[in-house]
């Protein structure tokens, strides 16, 4: 990836703003080894080059206050002035995120977001909570009987997979297919940067998941139920007709955006507790601290390391005047470890005060599913911690997921 150059905007303008060509500065998120322990490099990057032009002609914004400044004050879009997305594969059309609410701005974004909020809200969270409690109890019953589990395959994947299938009305027999297609589609957010063979795999998965959800929407339109797809149809009809294909895209986007990130929230949270037994002990003493555990887990090891925005007019930040159409990567992982914002930021501390991190994004595009993800994580982390209170947890070898997010593929643990 070091030689890749994507000319999103006037390349020379970005070079002029930076005083020279882009440089990964030793922190290349496309490097397979990046996920192992990226934070020493991220910290060095933030101190050496807080507004960093990369070799792929995007700007990494590395300080917490600068990220907040852009989210609050810069005039931005999710797409370039040409209408193209800065990260998507332009040939990836069916089941893609091009028409998803996350990729929209202005009135269209507001309309789609309101449609989804009417369909997926705290009522949805409360309706799913009993099923989440039952699922995590079932997982831990089996784990204790077996003497261990894979935190990812047996817990962090199972909880969001079952919940999303239940919410969408997807039959249990289709869940394995759903898991496979969703995992592939997660990489669609930054598919433009991926090898051709991976892009082709993404396109095929997009066709398959679009076929499935377009049929599901058509079926629900004839026979509405209590699932989210039915609620999206009802909500959409309040605003006038929305084509079934676009409704299918919103449903696909919701599950893909929330699936792997929730796996990371639960998996990375469990790992942080296991690797910091003093903090695990504090949590076990008072599990009402679970929301603080989630916030600190998101800050300390967020599954999403950056989100993108596109400037719709020039904006000065960190002493650099960035041009219109500049593609910004708001570097959440760097901001969440910024010592100017967080005291002793490389320490996992569930008693941390002033812990308003940016892991769920911000502004108009603040994460729609954050309450559902938090509810799933609350019960998963609490059940795991309480049920292993009198056991020694022995962690096995981590295998990292090929996802663009910082998410593990396997994390086996045994109990003794």
Q: What is the top-level CATH class of the domain at 1-92 and 305-358?
A: Alpha Beta
- Low-pLDDT residue spans: none
End-to-end distance: 44 Å
Counted beta strands? 12
In the CATH classification, which architecture of the domain at 1-92 and 305-358 applies? 2-Layer Sandwich
Average predicted confidence as pLDDT: 89
* Most strands sheet: 5 strands, mixed
**Gross geometry:** globular
Number of helices in the DSSP assignment: 15
Structural class: alpha+beta
CATH topology term of the domain at 1-92 and 305-358? Uridine Diphospho-n-acetylenolpyruvylglucosamine Reductase, domain 2
Share of β-strand residues = 5-15%
The Rg value, from CA coordinates, equals 21 Å
Q: Order of strands across the widest beta sheet?
A: 1-2-8-5-3
Percent of residues in helices: 40-55%
Order of helices and strands: HHEEHEHHEHHHHHHHHEEEEHHEEEE
């Amino acid at each position: 990836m070091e030689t890749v150059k994507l000319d999103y905007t006037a390349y020379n303008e970005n070079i002029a703003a930076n005083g020279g060509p882009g440089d990964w500065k030793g922190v290349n998120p496309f490097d397979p080894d990046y996920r192992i322990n990226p934070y020493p490099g991220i910290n060095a990057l933030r101190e050496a080059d807080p507004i960093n032009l990369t070799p792929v002609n995007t700007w990494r914004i590395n300080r917490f206050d600068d990220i907040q400044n852009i989210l609050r004050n810069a005039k931005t879009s999710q797409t370039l002035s040409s209408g193209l997305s800065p990260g998507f594969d332009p040939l990836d059309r069916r089941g893609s995120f091009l028409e998803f609410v996350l990729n929209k701005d202005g009135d269209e974004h507001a309309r789609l977001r309101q449609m989804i909020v009417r369909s997926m809200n705290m009522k949805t969270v409360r309706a799913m909570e009993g099923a989440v409690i039952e699922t995590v109890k079932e997982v831990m019953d089996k784990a204790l009987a077996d003497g261990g589990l894979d935190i990812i395959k047996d817990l962090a994947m199972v909880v969001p997979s079952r919940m999303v299938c239940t919410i969408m009305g997807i039959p249990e027999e289709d869940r394995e297919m759903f898991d496979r297609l969703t995992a592939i589609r997660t990489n669609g957010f930054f598919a433009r940067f991926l090898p051709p063979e991976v892009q082709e795999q993404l396109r095929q998965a997009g066709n398959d998941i679009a076929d499935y959800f377009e049929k599901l929407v058509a079926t629900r339109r004839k026979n509405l139920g209590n699932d989210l797809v039915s609620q999206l149809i009802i909500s959409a009809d309040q605003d006038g007709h929305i084509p079934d294909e676009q409704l299918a895209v919103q449903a696909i986007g919701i599950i893909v955006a929330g699936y792997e990130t929730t796996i990371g929230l639960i998996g990375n949270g469990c790992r942080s507790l296991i690797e910091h037994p003093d903090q695990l002990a504090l949590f076990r003493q008072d599990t009402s601290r679970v929301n603080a555990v989630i916030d600190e887990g998101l800050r300390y090891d967020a599954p999403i390391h950056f989100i993108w925005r596109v400037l719709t007019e020039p904006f000065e930040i960190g002493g650099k005047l960035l041009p219109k159409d500049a593609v910004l990567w708001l570097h959440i992982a760097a901001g969440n470890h910024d010592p100017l914002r967080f005291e002793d930021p490389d320490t996992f501390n569930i008693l941390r005060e002033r812990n308003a991190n940016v892991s769920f994004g911000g502004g108009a595009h603040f994460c729609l599913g954050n309450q559902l993800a938090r509810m799933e994580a609350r019960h998963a982390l609490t059940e795991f911690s309480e049920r292993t209170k009198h056991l020694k947890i022995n962690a096995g070898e981590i295998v990292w997921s090929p996802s663009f997010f910082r998410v593990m593929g396997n994390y086996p643990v045994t109990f003794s």
